[in-house]
């Protein structure tokens, strides 16, 4: 996500940090580079201009230039301004009545139908009873797609086929929800390839009959400035309440995320970060700003870990580490928990200093994890508990059983041995620290 922009900005700031004292011309030069980086990331021209002016004004103040760490302070100013640019603080969905009504709008292919399902899942997990309403009667298979997703989630889908008008479908869908005790209704409306008057009129018709709490425009982050233009048009016509940016998991340059709030005045509320129905996040401008500047996003990482990791198991593991009983079974369990947190490169990208291009050289292949799991599950219980008994013929059998090569099995056993050694050192270090000894 935003890799180029992130790399570029980090390069600019490395230079600033390297200097003990900064002059106005250092700042000018840095701002010139930031400006180019933002424009290349497809950020709206006027937005870039205002942004640079604000940062420059704040940076050339006497206290900053004469402080002990002027470079750091300029970076902080940029970070704070980036956060402001993206809306300052996170914006929640607000429902003023029951059932709450969310209307998703946007061009074809932006990710509305997928997002409708993601939202339904999100609220189902919060013990709400959502109803999905299939109002996209034009795209072939849109209704079917929503029905399949609904079935997968165990969420009802209200449909009237493609012969009724979307306005009627939404009206009756809402009535159905009221009669049947749903607390949230999600309209999946039709898109077009381009904005056209008829579509807008139809969407206005739905707004009139359903009075949605949230009119959320779904835009594809990969389309950069086009997404911003689309947002502008939809907002002028429908007065949207917020934006959902999808496909942020792709190689997006950042232009949409950084321009939408400034251009439309409407916040980005949620983001789609993958094709799976769990791949939905709240948009946190502060965390995003830190991520762009390579400062990591430890808060999101902790939240993901809390959601994926079983606390009881974690305690159990700690005990095992202390008593040095860490086995291959524990190893595979650890891998499974890490996998639940999401793709490994996404997780590592949230660590400070690990974002951007620095990950490229690192082998963080999820396929590798699958292989390791296959190898370990081809071992007998005895082998997993005591890997030292795994001799040549056993290695051959395990490789054949897991569809891997003997070298793969060897490598895994070696890695495990190293990890055990490391853990032994770690636990003796921990013990001596507990006794108050200095480790070094
Ligand atoms: P709609 O026409 O607006 O309803 O769009 P769809 O929901 O059918 O999505 C269009 C395509 O984008 C599908 O192939 C989705 O799987 C994909 N998609 C949607 N959201 C995301 C996302 O956050 N990340 C990625 N990588 N793909 C997405």
TrEMBL record:
Alphabetically ordered keywords of this record? Cytoplasm, GTP-binding, Hydrolase, Nucleotide-binding, Ribonucleoprotein, RNA-binding, Signal recognition particle
UniProt-recorded Gene Ontology molecular function terms: 7S RNA binding; GTP binding; GTPase activity
Provide the catalytic activity annotation: GTP + H2O = GDP + phosphate + H(+)
Pinpoint the SRP54-type proteins GTP-binding domain residues. Answer: 267-280
What does the record list as GO biological process?
Answer: SRP-dependent cotranslational protein targeting to membrane
Q: Which Pfam families match?
A: SRP54 (PF00448), SRP54_N (PF02881), SRP_SPB (PF02978)
Q: How does it assemble?
A: Part of the signal recognition particle protein translocation system, which is composed of SRP and FtsY.
Compartment(s) of residence: Cytoplasm
- Keyword Cytoplasm assigned to the entry: answer is yes
EC numbers: 3.6.5.4
Q: What is this protein called?
A: Signal recognition particle protein
What taxonomic lineage is listed for the species of origin? Bacteria, Bacillati, Bacillota, Clostridia, Eubacteriales
Record's GO cellular component terms = signal recognition particle
- The residues that hold GTP are 106-113, 188-192, 246-249
Q: Does the keyword Nucleotide-binding apply?
A: yes
Domain note for this entry? Answer: Composed of three domains: the N-terminal N domain, which is responsible for interactions with the ribosome, the central G domain, which binds GTP, and the C-terminal M domain, which binds the RNA and the signal sequence of the RNC.
- Class of enzymatic activity (EC top level): hydrolase
Which InterPro entries would you find in this protein's record?
Answer: AAA+_ATPase (IPR003593), P-loop_NTPase (IPR027417), Signal_recog_part_SRP54_M_sf (IPR036891), Signal_recog_particl_SRP54_hlx (IPR013822), Signal_recog_particle_SRP54_M (IPR004125), SRP (IPR004780), SRP54 (IPR022941), SRP54_GTPase_dom (IPR000897)
Protein family per UniProt? Belongs to the GTP-binding SRP family. SRP54 subfamily.
Function in brief: Involved in targeting and insertion of nascent membrane proteins into the cytoplasmic membrane. Binds to the hydrophobic signal sequence of the ribosome-nascent chain (RNC) as it emerges from the ribosomes. The SRP-RNC complex is then targeted to the cytoplasmic membrane where it interacts with the SRP receptor FtsY.
From which domain of life does this come?
Answer: Bacteria
Q: Tell me which CDD domains the record gives.
A: SRP_G (cd18539)
């Amino acid at each position: 996500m935003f890799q180029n922009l992130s790399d570029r900005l980090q390069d600019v700031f490395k230079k600033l940090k390297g200097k003990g004292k900064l002059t106005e011309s250092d700042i000018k030069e840095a701002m010139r580079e930031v400006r180019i980086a933002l424009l290349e990331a497809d950020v709206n021209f006027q937005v870039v201009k205002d942004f640079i002016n604000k940062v420059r004004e704040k940076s050339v103040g006497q206290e900053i230039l004469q402080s002990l760490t002027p470079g750091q302070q300029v970076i902080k100013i940029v970070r704070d301004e980036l956060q402001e640019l993206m809306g300052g603080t996170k914006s929640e969905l607000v429902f003023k009545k029951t059932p709450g009504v969310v209307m998703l709008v946007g061009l074809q292919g932006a990710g509305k139908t997928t997002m409708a399902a993601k939202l339904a899942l999100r609220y189902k997990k919060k013990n709400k009873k959502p109803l999905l309403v299939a109002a996209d009667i034009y795209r072939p298979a849109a209704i079917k797609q929503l029905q399949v997703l609904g079935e997968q989630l165990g969420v009802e889908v209200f449909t009237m086929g493609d012969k009724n008008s979307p306005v009627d479908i939404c009206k009756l869908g809402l009535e159905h929800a009221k009669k049947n005790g749903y607390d949230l209704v999600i309209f999946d409306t039709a898109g077009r390839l381009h904005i056209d008057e008829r579509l807008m009129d139809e969407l206005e018709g739905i707004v009139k009959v359903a009075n949605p709490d949230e009119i959320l425009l779904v835009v594809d982050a990969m389309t950069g400035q086009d997404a911003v233009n689309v947002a502008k048009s939809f907002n002028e016509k429908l007065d949207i309440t917020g934006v959902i940016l999808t496909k942020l998991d792709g190689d997006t340059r950042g232009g949409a995320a950084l321009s939408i709030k400034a251009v439309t005045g409407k916040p980005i509320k949620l983001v789609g970060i993958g094709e799976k129905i769990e791949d939905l996040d709240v948009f946190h401008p502060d965390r995003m700003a830190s991520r762009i500047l390579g400062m990591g996003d430890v808060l999101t990482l902790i939240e993901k870990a809390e959601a994926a990791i079983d606390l009881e198991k974690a305690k159990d593991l700690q005990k095992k580490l202390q008593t040095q009983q860490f086995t291959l079974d524990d190893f595979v369990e650890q891998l499974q928990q890490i996998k639940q947190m999401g793709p490994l490169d996404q997780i590592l990208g949230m660590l400070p200093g690990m974002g951007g291009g620095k990950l490229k050289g690192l082998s963080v292949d999820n396929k590798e994890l699958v292989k390791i799991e296959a190898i370990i599950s081809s071992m007998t219980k005895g082998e997993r508990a005591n890997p030292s008994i795994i001799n040549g013929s056993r290695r051959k059998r395990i490789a054949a059983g897991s569809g891997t090569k003997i070298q793969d099995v060897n490598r895994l056993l070696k890695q495990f041995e190293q990890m055990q050694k490391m853990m032994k050192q770690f636990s003796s270090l921990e013990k001596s620290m507990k006794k108050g000894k200095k480790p070094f």
